[in-house]
Amino acid sequence: MKKAVIKALKYPTGEFKMPKKFTEKDIEKNIKIIEKFPSDLKKEVEKMTEDTLEFRHRLGGWTVRQIVHHCADSHMNAYIRTKLAYTEQNPTIKPYDESAWANTDDSGEAPVTWSLQLLEGLHKRWVMLLSELNSEELNRTYFHPEHNKKITLVNLIFLYAWHCQHHIAHVKQAKKYKNKFS
Predict the structure, then answer these.
(1) Rounded distance, CA 153 to CA 182, Å?
(2) What is the pTM for the complete model shown?
């Protein structure tokens, strides 16, 4: 398989790029994406068969079940990073091994409804907090030791809006290919 095809399957919405310029409307639009994510994800997976939940969106990728649980894991970490940056001065966050987390028994076997329920409540609280941040607070930072850099809360908003769309695209991709090859 060609590198371009592999990259397109891995990044169906493209790789994340933080815009150099953005407006308050852009921030609001990205918070809306984060807000809608739990219902959008639920709509995509709620009627899936067990076979489809076990289908991988690409060779070497995660199953749909793992993607759903990964989103809960990732977004819990993002919420905690948000709260840390909001309440502390440039705190150092704890990175985690996403692949190792995706390969634990709870990620490979637990019902997706558990993570869908978790995401619903988590996103309500997260969006409430994000929506109240003023421009000074949006520029608060946390330090990511894996990337050796400070990350602003506004960057986190854009990154996680992308993350939401990225994994919805993976789920849609899995449904498409599962139907095509079944």
Answers:
(1) 43
(2) 0.95
